[in-house]
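ERR on first pass: missing label on line 2. Operator R.T. fixed the label and resubmitted. Corrected input:
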Amino acid sequence: MEDIKIMVVDDEPRMRKLVKDYLVRSGYTVIEAKDGEEAFDRFVSIKNISLIIMDVMMPNMDGYEASAQIRKLSQVPIIMLTAKSSEPDELKGFALGIDEYITKPFSPKILVARVEAVLRRSNISQAESRVEAGGICIDLSAHSVTVDGKEIELSYKEFELLNYFIVNQGVALPRERILNNVWNYDYFGDARTIDTHVKKLRAKLGDKGSYIKTIWGFGYKFEV
Amino acid sequence: MEDIKIMVVDDEPRMRKLVKDYLVRSGYTVIEAKDGEEAFDRFVSIKNISLIIMDVMMPNMDGYEASAQIRKLSQVPIIMLTAKSSEPDELKGFALGIDEYITKPFSPKILVARVEAVLRRSNISQAESRVEAGGICIDLSAHSVTVDGKEIELSYKEFELLNYFIVNQGVALPRERILNNVWNYDYFGDARTIDTHVKKLRAKLGDKGSYIKTIWGFGYKFEV
DNA sequence: GATGAGTTTGATAAAACTGTGAAATCCGTA
DNA sequence: TACGGATTTCACAGTTTTATCAAACTCATC
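pass 2 clean. output:
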């Protein structure tokens, strides 16, 4: 699964976090930078950044200067965040090949929509959200599971658990690891809880339930 | 998705914001300019402006003069805002190829209706102004919804919500994401708010209400 | 095959979540 | 300002899901 990396550049940590949250929630991987300088450095050192979202106003090196620097190396799409629409800025930006402007304050809708529009324009598509193994197909985005093409109903936890199994296909998973990943890392409950869920999963998977194998004294493994 | 860009020219920021808000809400992208001079400059520098809405009374270069300048370059439709209908002005305007007049004060309905009429006349159609799924048809520009051809009345929020569902057809939407997208990103309200709106939507959609599926412990999904 | 630790299973209790109606609040308009 | 519709909040009932427990069962080993 190829992640789409987006770099968010803003000197205000809060704004960075805000933008990051929306993007992460929409399935993107976010890299942060606190000013133009850091942005440039990280852009050079990290491969495959698909998009940069940058604030105009920043200390050290402002958004336009940073864009200009980056443009010398790459045609990576750049979205500029501006405090308010101001003419000379936009002209400057378009000259630099800024792809989009988002005026603060913005709604997440706008943000994600613009990001998607820009990525679409540059032919970068969202990573595949499907996992498959032995006729069991999980569609993350639709939150649905099919077994041999027939949809089955899973509860939230069952879904998470099955997904964890299939993503870690062929790997022996100790109970503790399952607890830490499917449940919360600070989950204090009984390890037997997993067993109960495994039981239900096996039942719902029918024949294919046997793909979830018990490893005695250790945990479980999903294997076709 | 190609956005239709409309330039709004008025020296009063409040009036500009008002007009902008209505247009943005109707799905247009708005570019602002504070007087005739700025309007001309921006029209030259920004590509694909589909329509200009301009106040007559402005400092520096008034609406008519700006129109005359722009007409030398382009036949872009122009709607003129006037304080009150006055005949000599209108004559002047029609000579310049002004497409429409709107007399202040105006209702948002009038504004959007005129805009759409003008765009229709010039064969510029709103991109993706219609969405359909399972017999539910949403007309973004008319802000109307039909179920099996019969129009139903939805409130603003209900409309937004339904639209969000249908645009994201088949995608499992966590509550949080719905809140962030249909409401604002800084919305801190009660999570039950969504439920209430979903309830109303389901009721108004009749049979088709069941297309909005509950995903336990997660959120909702629209699926036919 | 007896043994004991580990696992499955079903029953049941506990927790979490959703649907709903009604009340409160907000907002634009008359 | 009063009104009416839209929106939000709230409390609670009804469900679904999840956790826990204990008894039955399995497995590896002796």
